[in-house]
Amino acid sequence: MEIKLPLPAVISILHRVSGVLLFFPGIPILLYGLQMMLDSPQSHDDFHAILSCIPVKIGLTVLLWFLMHHLCAGIRHLALDLHYGEGREQARVSGRIVLIVGIILTILFGAVIWQTEL
Q1: Please, what is the angle between helix 41-51 and helix 27-39, to 10°?
Q2: For position 83, which CATH number holds?
Q3: Longest dimension (CA), the chain
Q4: What residues contact 13, with CB distance under 8 A and at least 6 apart?
Q5: Cβ contacts of 13-16, under 8 Å, gap ≥ 24
Q6: DSSP at 84
Q7: Which pTM was predicted?
């Protein structure tokens, strides 16, 4: 027997997972990077060298997707709390919109990560 979750349920689960992953390890990484940038000129240069590595850029892009998806899904949840889009078909459409907009925003902002020499 196969259980298939509807798209709105998957979006809701991803919203929770992305929130947890933004909290940990997202916040410690952000704070460590801020500390490196502000500590000394040498640690600032070291931080820029770390950010120019391909695996780090991939990790930043994944964290960016977590943020964009969490933002879009959060807006969707706020609309649902206000009783907008509660119907089955409306929920499916809004779920697709959240996925598409999250991916588009990740691509747009991710281009900055990949194009600039940090």
Answers
A1: 140
A2: 1.20.1300.10
A3: 60
A4: 5
A5: 14/69, 14/73, 15/69, 15/70, 15/73, 15/74, 15/77
A6: S
A7: 0.90
Instruction: Indicate the pLDDT class of residue 118, thresholds 50, 70 and 90.
Output: low
| Domain encompassing residue 16 | 7-21+52-115
Domain count, the chain: 1
Cβ within 8 Å of residue 85, ≥6 positions away: 76, 79, 91, 93, 94
- pLDDT (tens digit per residue) in 5-37: 999 999 999 999 999 999 999 999 999 999 999
Q: Name the band, by pLDDT with cuts 50, 70 and 90, for residue 117.
A: low
pLDDT of residue 69: 98
Angle between helices 88-115 and 7-21 (to 10 degrees): 40
Q: Which two tokens stand for residue 104?
A: 């588009």
Is 37 a member of any domain?
A: no
Instruction: Give 2 or 99, the one with higher predicted confidence.
Output: 99
